[in-house]
Amino acid sequence: MNGVPGPELSGTAPPSLQASRVASDRLPVLVIYPVFLISGGAAILYQLAWQRSLFRLLGSSMESVTMIVTAFMLGLGLGSLAGGAASERFRWPLPLVFGAFEIGIGAFGFISMPLFSWMASQTTEAEGLSIGLIAFVAVLLPTLLMGATLPILVAYLVRQSGNVGRSVGMLYFINTLGSAIASLVASLGIFRLLGLSHTVHLAAGINVLVAIVVISAYLTRGKWR
């Protein structure tokens, strides 16, 4: 009667309804933090196994070691930049994007060792800068995906909490902790027990498991409230 539209007619939902919608779209940290912990562990297993494999295939000279490590870190850095930019443009919910990237990493992991062997057989005369280019191409796709996972999850948590510092700090801490634990496990003999190929398969299986958990949790998120 007074000419002011009620909540059901206005273009903006009441604050209580908006809060409810945010809550219904939120994954609990009890899902996000553990999966990112073991995702970080899988990433360091890949790094160690792939570097050993590439050293064996392309040589272990100082130049080869430097090129291979640089290629891995460059891919992660580029992936982080790309993930930060893409997180603002994806139309898919970010947890589903994260899950898709984890599946991509795992799929590459399952084929990576034969692929590296084939690439080495085709480039037996490579040396110097050529080794770096080969290593960069070999690990470009998975490291891009790995590097993108952190900014994607950060963007998702920031949208939920509005706290940039806490989101970045906690996710970085959790991911680094997972890497540290995996490094310890590796030093205790996981490569000796499983070998390089089976260690990579273990990491790939972890990525697929992470994807399944995150996607399932997101699709059933209403049950977490």
Distance between the termini: 37 Å
Q: How many alpha or pi helices?
A: 6
- Rg estimate, integer Å: 21 Å
Element order, helices and strands? HHHHHH
Description:
The chain has a single domain, classed as Growth Hormone, Chain: A. Helix content is 81%, strand content 0%. It is built from six helices and no strands. The radius of gyration is 21 Å and the shape is globular. The N terminus is likely disordered.
Task: Give me a quick take on this structure.
With 225 residues, the chain is mainly alpha-helical.
Blueprint of the fold:
Blueprint: H1 15-24, H2 29-58, H3 62-86, H4 94-122, H5 129-161, H6 164-219
Helix pairs in contact: 2-3, 2-4, 2-5, 2-6, 3-5, 4-5, 4-6, 5-6
What keywords describe this structure?
225 residues, mainly alpha, 6 helices, disordered N terminus, Growth Hormone, Chain: A
